[in-house]
């Protein structure tokens, strides 16, 4: 089972590198979308906590 995890991790790593090398603009757009999602989630949690305190 541990070897399957290693192979899957290496496959994901190779895929990420392939995507970055072949289409850097698309990879940058995906990273931006990811960070925007994280930012939005953090803002939502902050708003929730603020409303909870009030």
3D architecture notes:
- It is built from two helices and no strands.
- With 54 residues, the chain is an all-alpha fold.
- Helix 1 (2-22) crosses helix 2.
- The longest helix is centred in the last third of the chain and has 30 residues, at 24-53.
Judging from the principal axes of the Cα atoms, what is the shape?
flat
> What radius of gyration results from the CA coordinates?
18 Å
Helix content: over 70%
Span of the ends, CA to CA: 49 Å
**Number of helices, counting only DSSP H or I runs of 4 residues or more:** 2
Main sheet: strands, sense, barrel: none
Give the percentage of residues in beta strands.
Answer: under 5%
Give, in order, the helices and strands: HH
Low-confidence stretches: none
Write the layout of secondary structure elements.
Elements: H1 2-22, H2 24-53
Helix pairs in contact: 1-2
Please give a handful of descriptors for the protein shown.
94% helix; mainly alpha; 2 helices; flat; single chain; 54 residues
Short note summarizing the structure:
The protein has helices at 2-22, 24-53. With 54 residues, it is mostly helical.
């Amino acid at each position: 089972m541990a070897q399957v995890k290693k192979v899957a991790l290496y496959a994901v790593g190779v895929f990420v590198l392939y995507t970055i090398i072949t289409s850097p603009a698309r990879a940058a757009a995906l990273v931006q979308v990811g960070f925007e999602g994280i930012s939005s989630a953090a803002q939502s949690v902050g708003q929730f906590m603020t409303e909870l305190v009030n």
